Amino acid sequence: MFKRSEEGGTTDEEILNVLRRSDEDVLGTSEIAEFLEVDGAQTRNRLNDLHDEDRVGTRKIGNTRIWVLGPEEPATVVHPEIASIQRVCRELSEIGRMVAICGAGAFVVGGVLLIAYLAVAIGEVSLGIVSAGKLAEIGLGLLAAGGVVSFLGGAVMASAYGIEGLAKRRNHTIS
Fold it and tell me: What is the reported pLDDT for 173?
């Protein structure tokens, strides 16, 4: 879950923790490399990867590239394993959100089919393609399935949120 360098040494979170521990708002590549006791080119490559993931921000002042924590990154030191748990929870929460949206879509389609069924049953509309009974059957099925899927997506989101909160509290006790 947390990436290590090719040599198996420094994790992303260890690099970010250098920025978190610093008394300065920004650090140069060489300062970060020196603290980690890692080659400057390797540090720059890893920082560029973190920048691509929006975990750090950067700009160039003269010949020096400076780095800051990304806006979504916590300002306090994060244990690497806790960070992995938090990242997975955020991903699960996003998946849960998408599942809930898909379920809501199925629910809406089911409702539309039931409205079509009512129009056919009242006799105001005639459908030669499908029977009124089949429309009701499909509509009710989609309503039920959509409701269940939306509920499950919400449950995944809530669980991920709760686990992420526990991980944050746990991080404060081990940092």
Answer: 63
